[in-house]
Amino acid sequence: MEKEIINKVAQSSLLVFDLEDYYPDEHVVDLDISQWLLEGFLLKESDFRAHLKDTDWSAYQDKYVAIYCATDAILPAWTYALVTVHLAPYALKVIHGTKELGIIDWYQDVLNKLDYTDYFQKPVILKGCSKKEVPNQVYTLAIQKLIKVARSIMFGEACSAVPLFKK
Asked: Using CA atoms in the order 138, 142, 145, 150, what is the torsion angle rounded to 10 degrees?
């Protein structure tokens, strides 16, 4: 006689907090400004301004845009500020840095707006395995939010969770 397999994890009060649920997908993009530099290195102000004027900025509508320079060009600070002036009417947010920094910034904004009442005094698993590349810094942001409300927090999957916090 076979015994019925019981999923004890599904029956438990454990709640899973999955950062992948909030992954920005196409909401965070990067923009390399070296494309508007002479040979990718030299900033010629009149040409740079002309390129900015001719760019269709609507492609960045409602996006987090991470602006960076892929070359080792030495640029004045106003370069990024001027690009931001053109992006600001379209982008949700402009970040000076890599796309990963843009993703971290996205998560910070999302995590700050979430309602954590469902996790109040409950055991929580901060899901650690994901198909999308959630930056490690985001786990640091998430744990700071969860320790304020959760009774306990583990990291990973229910079958092999690592205990992190217990009230």
From this structure: -170
Convert 21-65 into a string of H (helix), E (strand) and C (coil). Answer: HHCCHHHEEEEEHHHHCECCCECCHHHHHHHHHHCCHHHHCCCEE
Cα–Cα dist 53/96, whole Å: 20
Cβ(148)–Cβ(116) below 8 Å: yes
Contacts of 121 (CB under 8 A, 6+ apart): 149, 150, 151
pLDDT tens-place string over residues 109-118? 999 999 999 9
**pLDDT tens digits, residue range 139-160?**
999 999 999 999 999 999 888 8
Quick check: 11 pLDDT over 60?
no
Q: Tokens 């840095």 identify what position?
A: 97
CA distance 17 to 149: 13
3-state secondary structure of 101: helix
Q: Residue 22 region, left (φ>0) first, then alpha (ψ -120 to 50), else beta?
A: alpha
Please indicate, yes or no, whether the overall pTM of this predicted structure exceeds 0.90. Answer: no
Of the CA atoms within 13 Å of residue 68, those in its CB half-sphere come to 12
> What SS3 class is residue 120?
coil
